[in-house]
C-alpha cells in the first residue's frame, strides 16, 4: 500500500510488536503471582527463620551453688519467649512475694551470660523497671511495677 511517498508494511512489524507485548504481559503476570497476597486482617505468620539455635548445649548449662535454687525464666530469642534455667539465692525464694519478684526481675533484667548470648538469647526488660510493695486495697500477695503495662513491650509483659 502506498500513501504519498511512504510505503507501509504492516505484517512483520505488527507481528514483532504483538510478540513483544505478549512477552511483557506474560512476564508481568508471572511476576505478580510470586508475591504475598494482601489481606485486610492481620496474619500471624510466626517468627522469621533464624540460624540461631535458641537452646543451650549441655556443656553451656551452668552448675549452681548449694546456697541457690533453680528457677525458670523467660528470655527473648528470635522474637519468641523461650525458657532458660537460672539460679537465684535460696533466701530470695522465701515467703515474701516482693523479695521473690525482685529476685526474678533481676534475673531476667541482667544481660545474659556469654553462652546464652551465643545461643541468641536477649532480654526485653527495661533498665529502670522496679517492683514495689502493693498499696492498700490491692489483693494479698500483689506487687506493683514502676511502669505502666502499656509502656512495656509485649515480651516484657509476658
Automatic annotation (TrEMBL):
Matching PROSITE patterns, A to Z? PROKAR_LIPOPROTEIN
According to the record, the residues making up region (Disordered) are 135-158
Q: Where is the signal peptide?
A: 1-31
Keywords per UniProt: Signal
Q: Does the keyword Signal apply?
A: yes
Task: Tell me the superkingdom of the source.
Answer: Bacteria
Instruction: Spell out the protein name for this chain.
Output: GerMN domain-containing protein
According to its UniProt entry, this protein's organism is Streptomyces sp. SID7499
Amino acid at each position: 500500500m502506498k500513501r504519498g511517498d511512504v510505503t507501509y508494511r504492516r505484517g512483520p512489524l505488527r507481528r514483532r510488536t504483538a510478540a513483544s507485548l505478549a512477552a511483557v504481559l506474560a512476564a508481568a503476570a508471572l511476576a505478580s503471582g510470586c508475591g504475598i497476597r494482601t489481606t485486610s486482617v492481620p496474619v500471624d505468620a510466626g517468627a522469621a527463620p533464624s540460624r540461631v539455635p535458641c537452646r543451650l548445649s549441655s556443656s553451656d548449662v551452668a552448675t549452681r551453688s548449694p546456697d541457690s535454687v533453680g528457677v525458670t525464666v523467660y528470655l527473648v530469642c528470635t522474637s519468641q519467649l523461650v525458657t532458660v534455667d537460672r539460679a537465684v539465692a535460696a533466701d530470695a525464694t522465701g515467703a515474701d512475694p516482693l523479695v521473690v519478684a525482685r529476685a526474678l526481675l533481676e534475673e531476667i533484667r541482667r544481660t545474659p551470660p556469654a553462652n546464652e548470648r551465643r545461643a541468641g538469647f536477649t532480654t526485653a526488660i527495661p533498665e529502670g523497671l522496679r517492683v514495689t510493695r502493693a498499696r492498700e486495697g490491692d489483693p494479698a500477695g500483689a506487687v506493683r511495677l514502676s511502669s505502666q503495662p502499656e509502656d512495656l513491650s509485649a515480651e516484657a509483659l509476658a
